[in-house]
């Protein structure tokens, strides 16, 4: 059925006669995944869709993470859509504000605003097996959708550790992804909890203005220099006048990272030379042997994400900074206590403790064909077919799903591959007819997951000797893709119908489930 006919059949997504609104596709989230999905749907001729965003603006993690010093650790020309190149990136590694502006620009350029519903949080998704659609409950009412694309992303819900006594702390407490810009840090005694990608940007950004900064470090990260610089006006002029140069720049950045993948996935010992460079980076900035020992990891570089900074180590060497080589274990009044017994009085606690990655909260809100939630289905670990579809959840697709993360390149590459899969998924549904759904076969999900986990065994993420956020509570890596982005693009280029069961509505209710057209409603009214 053509898209314009389908819109007329369903009332063009509007509420008619008191009936609930129905759309062809409901996209959840407006970060890179959600905005990308919306663009791809429009380019495929699908215009009957909505983008449901719980916040008041688009941007996803780049809207939420507005902490001081926030920037991307992937070069800007690679961390942008291939179909929406930006010739005006101001730096090779651009900051949060510029990335947020870019996503706003994409939403405007591709005329997505009319599809986006801000301040609309999805509270539950429930599959209706009779009508073959999803009931989508939101903070702004309920609608139904033939297909749901979850693009909430793994870095959307902050993870706070359960610290005894934290509720009695009399000072200020917040997570890096929920930065309190109204709180003045000048002269304050600050406890920074965690040493991940956010913390290494926050520490140097606030070190000069705070009175004292205490960094609680469970595990030191490997940190390499960040080859950041301003992109000259001349370069930007060339990129605007000769668009192929922007694509060429992106291609070179992509190619370099593709060549690095073998060391991460098949030959981790080759990373030893990189490790020596990282140790020299520490030695250049940290002259105190005791502090240098605290900051030198004992695991293979690459096991955790390699972080990039030119200012992190110099900031830690300043006289108003203390590094506690232990995690936070307790709070007593205004005193924070480390696992090694170190006590420090502070005015504010900032958590840079990451996100719910392997236990994404959205999974608790998705109720599938058997009445169970996606979280229950994933109780033994996240599993999906080609990082997109889970058994028991027809016409439900995840962007940045299980084992689609990267340890050394741009997630935009993986997102675009999944958008290819989404596009073909919609084509297959059109070929099958309006009242059809695709349900991933359990056997196909297991076969894909077994293949991924077998490849994972020899990667640095599994053999490097660290405990990273890539691993779930069972120690299984359900986050990272153990191959090149080219391989993943090939694996998601087309939907293989042999991996799916075609679901049709029960014969008795099939006709009743079909939304009536405006013409049919008019005839009934006249009768």
In terms of topology, how is this protein built?
Elements: H1 3-9, E1 21-28, H2 32-43, E2 49-52, H3 61-64, H4 96-109, E3 116-117, E4 122-128, E5 133-138, E6 141-150, E7 172-175, E8 189-193, H5 199-206, E9 212-216, E10 223-224, H6 233-241, H7 243-265, H8 272-285, H9 289-295, E11 307-308, H10 312-316, E12 321-324, E13 328-332, E14 335-338, E15 343-345, E16 348-351, E17 366-367, H11 374-377, E18 396-398, H12 411-432, E19 437-440, H13 442-456, H14 460-463, H15 485-491, E20 500-503, H16 507-513, H17 518-526
Parallel strand pairs: 1-2, 1-6, 2-3, 4-17, 6-18, 7-16, 8-9, 8-16, 9-12, 10-11
Antiparallel strand pairs: 4-5, 5-6, 13-14, 14-15, 19-20
Helix pairs in contact: 2-12, 6-7, 12-15
InterPro entries: FAD-bind_Monooxygenase_sf, FAD/NAD-bd_sf, Flavin_mOase-like
Keywords: FAD, Flavoprotein, Oxidoreductase
Family: Belongs to the FAD-binding monooxygenase family.
